[in-house]
Amino acid sequence: MKTLLFRAEDRGSADYGWLKPNYYFSFAQYQNPDKVHFGALRVLNDDFIAGGGAFPTHPHDNMEIITIPFTGGLKHKDSTGGAGTIKAGDIQIMSAGTGVQHSEANASATEPVTLFQVWLFPKERNITPRYDQKTFDIQNRVDQWQIVVSPRETDQALWINQDARFALTNLTKGKNITYTNAFENNGVFLVVIEGSVTVDGKLLNRRDAIGISETESFTITASEDAALLAIEIPMF
C-alpha cells in the first residue's frame, strides 16, 4: 500500500472576507507543483462562506463537481435549469460537460455556510451538462459506509461521469471500518472531516487527509468519534 499525507496545516488558504477557503490542491492563487491532483481528483476546497456571500454566475466545462455542505444552506442556479438549496445531509453534483453557467450563494444573510467542493476529471468529455442533488439519511452512515456518489445504479447514489465513488461514515471511537475499492486499481483520498483516526499506523486529525493507492482495501480505526469522506478515483 502506498500512502501520501496531506496535513490540514499544510493546505493553501485565502481570505476574501466573505469567503475563506482552504485548498488541498493547487487552486486560484495557491499553486503548489507537488499538489496538483491525486489521480482523477483535481480540486478539494474546504470553504467557509459568510452570511450574504455569493459566487456570481461563472462557467465550467468537462469537470464533475460535487458539493457537500456541513452547516448552513447553499443556493444554486445553473443554465441547465437546475436550482435549489442544499444543506447538511444533501449532496449536489454537476456534470459540466460541454459547458454550463452557474451561481452559488449563501441562503442566509447572517449565518455562514461550510462545505467541501470537489472536482474530478470526467470519464467522457463533452457530455450533455446535467445537475442533480439528493438528501441522504445521516443515521445510515453510523459505523458503516454510505455511498453517496457512484456510476453504479445499484448504489442508489447520485450518478457521476467517472469510475469513482464517494462514501461517508460517522465512526464511533474504538470502531474499525474497512474500505474496499469498487473499481480495480483505483486509489482513495480519505479526508477526516471531524475527529481523529489511524490508517496504516498514521494518526490523522480533523481535516487531515491521506491518499491511498496500490491496494484494493484498507482498514481505519477511530481514535475518537470521527466523520470521514472516502473519495475513490482512477489513478491515471
Question: Could you characterize the architecture of this molecule?
Answer:
This protein has 236 residues and is mainly beta. It has two domains: 10-135, Jelly Rolls, CATH 2.60.120; 138-233, Jelly Rolls (Sandwich), CATH 2.60.120.10. It is 0% helix and 52% strand. It has no helices and 21 strands. Strands 2-3-4-11-6-9-12 form a seven-stranded antiparallel beta sheet, with no helix packed on it. Strands 1-19-16-21-14-13 form a six-stranded antiparallel beta sheet, with no helix packed on it. The chain has a four-stranded antiparallel beta sheet with strand order 5-10-7-8, with no helix packed on it. It is globular and about 45 Å long. 37% of the residues are buried. The model has no long low-confidence stretch (mean pLDDT 96).
The portion of residues assigned to helices is under 10%
What is Rg? 17 Å
Fourth CATH level, the homologous superfamily of the largest domain: Jelly Rolls
Structural class: mainly beta
By DSSP, the count of extended strands is 21
Keywords for this entry:
236 residues, 21 strands, 2 domains, single chain, Jelly Rolls, 7-stranded antiparallel beta sheet, mainly beta, 6-stranded antiparallel beta sheet
Give me a quick take on this structure.
By secondary structure, the protein is mostly beta strands.
